[in-house]
Amino acid sequence: MTTLGETNMVRRLAVPITAVLLGAAAWAAQALGGDFLGGAVSFAILAAYGILVLVLSSRSDVGRVLAGDPPDERYRAIDMRALAAVGLVLILYVIGGFLWEQAHGRSGAPFTLMGAVAGLTYLGFVIYGRLGG
To answer: Is this prediction's pTM over 0.90?
Structure first.
C-alpha cells in the first residue's frame, strides 16, 4: 500500500527526474548527430532546471508550481494562465514561421505539421470538455 509520504515524494521528484531523462535523450540525440558538446550543454541545462525545481519546490510556492504541485487555487489559476500564454506564444510562433517560410519560397512543412497538431489537440480537448471530461 502506498503511503501519503511516498506519493508526495514521487510527485516531488517527477519533474526533476523527467528533466534529467530529457537531458539524457537530448545529449544522445545530439551526440548521434555529431554534436557531443552541444548535447552535454543541453543535458546540463535540463539537469540544472531539474535540480532548481527540486530545491525550490521545498522552499517556495513558485517552486511548487514549477514542480507541478501548486499549493492552492490561486497558484493553480496562475499556472493555467501561464500555460495559456505559452500556448498563445507558440501558436503565434508557428504561424509566423509558416508565413516566413512561405515568403521565402519554401514549403513551411514543419510549421504546418506543428500547427495541425496544435489545432487538432485544441479541437479534441474542446470536444472532450464539452462531453463532460
So the answer is: no
User: Whose CA is closest to 127, among 78, 119, 113, 94?
Assistant: 119
Going by C-beta distance under 8 Å and a sequence separation of 6 or more, which residues neighbour residue 49? 19
Could you report the per-residue pLDDT of 25-73, keeping only the tens digit for each? 999 999 999 999 999 999 999 999 888 887 777 777 777 777 777 778 8
Q: What is the DSSP string of 73-114?
A: HHHHHHHHHHHHHHHHHHHHHHHHHHHHHHHTT---HHHHHH
* Closest among 34, 56, 31 to 43, alpha carbons compared: 31
Q: Which amino acid is at 85?
A: A
